[in-house]
Amino acid sequence: GAVVSQHPSWVICKSGTSVKIECRSLDFQATTMFWYRQFPKQSLMLMATSNEGSKATYEQGVEKDKFLINHASLTLSTLTVTSAHPEDSSFYICSADPLLGAQHFGDGTRLSIL
Amino acid sequence: DQQVKQNSPSLSVQEGRISILNCDYTNSMFDYFLWYKKYPAEGPTFLISISSIKDKNEDGRFTVFLNKSAKHLSLHIVPSQPGDSAVYFCAATTTSGTYKYIFGTGTRLKVLA
């Protein structure tokens, strides 16, 4: 079946560092990818919709300058958390839409900012 | 405003019995609903979906029921197995537009051997 690969799976870094997370669709092309954030014991909250070749669409309350999204190809979207602080620590998950059926999710990235 | 709600944060069921997970939504524009299963530190795995033109969809041990008038859907797992223990999320979307999902808060299912 369709597979979405997310890398890295775990990042620990110092406050002020920028962190890049990659999301790849391995066996299908995805014009649209989605980035979610999950806090402990909470739902997956959609952060933004990543559109290949155009600007991402951010949900209300998500800082565009803090969470930079680039969707440079039909198989790769990246989320960069800029100047990360402890409050950015969370579990970030991407998904890709193969146009038919359900979105496929990556295994997530646990980000810990010290 | 929580458009998709799962009011039971946890559920325990004996192995072999039926597990029923519930989900309510408020947005009448939603026309496609999905259930995902999630283990800790992993991404959600798709289980089953249902379009608003149907009221039931079945796939093996999993059946999803949709009651549009009540804006309610449920996932039935029968028979329940210990490997089913996970967090289950329902999600809703509109098939027009960007097709983005709105997730419920999840229900942690524990199947007891």
Key attributes of the depicted protein:
heterodimer, A: 114 residues, globular, B: 113 residues, mainly beta, five-stranded antiparallel β-sheet, 53% strand
Quick synopsis:
The complex is a heterodimer of chains A (114) and B (113). With 114 residues, chain A is mainly β.
Mind explaining what this structure looks like?
The complex is a heterodimer of chains A (114) and B (113). In chain A, the strands form two sheets. In chain A, strands 2, 4, 5, 6, 9, 10 and 11 form a seven-stranded mixed beta sheet that branches. Chain A has a four-stranded antiparallel beta sheet with strand order 1-3-8-7, with no helix packed on it. Chain A has strands at 4-7, 10-13, 19-25, 32-38, 44-51, 57-58, 67-73, 76-81, 90-96, 104-105, 109-113. Chain A contains no helices and eleven strands. Chain A is globular, with a radius of gyration of 13 Å. Helices cover 0% and strands 52% of the residues of chain A. The mean pLDDT of chain A is 90. Chain B has no helices and eleven strands. Chain B has strands spanning 4-5, 10-14, 19-25, 32-38, 45-51, 56-59, 62-67, 72-77, 86-93, 102-103, 107-112. In chain B, a hairpin with a 2-residue loop joins β6 (56-59) and β7. The model of chain B has no long low-confidence stretch (mean pLDDT 93).
